Structure to design on (231 residues):
């Protein structure tokens, strides 16, 4: 018979996610002050992390319009999965479940440095839940889906066991993401948000939002996962 964690994974996948994992709250000891899951929901005992992969074809077109549009479109889709899955958990397991916004809104913003910080770090949660590890690009890399992922999370008071951590697939002798960034924004596994934002986000004459760079994603030999590299 399927245990509760497997049932939860099945629910999240059935709502449209490609990956789902679980991290018990004990995995978040040492999370930065103000960004701990229990700081949002004090009864939180586990965090469900999930991800939706972008179509690989979006790496084959210029990022400005089509990739930019669907990269944004992924966020409300991830929010919808979190919302529906949270309600399903509550109905089936008599628990409380808090869906977290995929991107915004959040409070922390350093105007000078153009640097924001989400309510929690979706990437940190995904690593703790075994979905992947962070590459030198600071992007989450998953064995099967590579770096083309949008991340979501749900907090719950269900006490669930953590999934095993993933093995890193970032290549030791590779620095392509670092050397391909046109503004040198990637250093020591972190992205300077100001340099990246000024280079990347813009508008057309008509006022449509554009994304003028996604090189750190598209140059990565692991962009479609380790399995694709072997194929
Ligand atoms: S999106 Fe472009 S500018 Fe931003 S970190 Fe990646 S390569 Fe650099
Ligand atoms: S481009 Fe190379 S160094 Fe950067 S994340 Fe991908 S594998 Fe790692």
């Amino acid at each position: 018979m399927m245990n509760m964690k497997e049932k939860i994974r099945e629910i999240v996948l059935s709502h449209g996610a490609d990956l789902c994992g679980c991290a018990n709250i004990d995995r978040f000891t040492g999370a930065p002050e103000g960004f701990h899951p229990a700081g949002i929901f004090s009864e939180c005992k586990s965090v469900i992390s999930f991800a939706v992969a972008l179509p690989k074809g979006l790496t084959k077109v210029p990022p400005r319009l089509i990739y930019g549009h669907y990269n944004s479109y992924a966020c409300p889709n991830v929010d919808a999965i979190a919302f529906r899955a949270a309600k399903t958990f509550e109905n089936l397991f008599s628990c409380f479940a808090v869906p977290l916004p995929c991107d915004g809104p959040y409070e922390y913003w350093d105007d000078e440095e153009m640097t924001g910080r989400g309510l929690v770090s979706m990437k940190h949660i995904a690593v703790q839940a075994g979905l992947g590890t962070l590459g030198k690009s600071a992007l989450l890399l998953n064995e099967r889906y590579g770096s083309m992922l949008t991340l979501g999370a749900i907090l719950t008071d269900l006490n669930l066991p953590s999934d095993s951590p993933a093995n890193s697939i970032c290549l030791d002798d590779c620095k392509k993401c670092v050397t391909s960034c046109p503004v040198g924004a990637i250093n020591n596994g972190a992205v300077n948000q100001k340099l990246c934002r000024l280079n990347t986000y813009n508008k057309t004459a008509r006022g449509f939002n554009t994304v003028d760079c996604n090189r750190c994603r598209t140059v990565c030999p692991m962009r479609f996962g380790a399995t694709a590299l072997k194929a």
About this structure: The chain is about 30% helix and 20% strand. The longest strand covers residues 46-53.
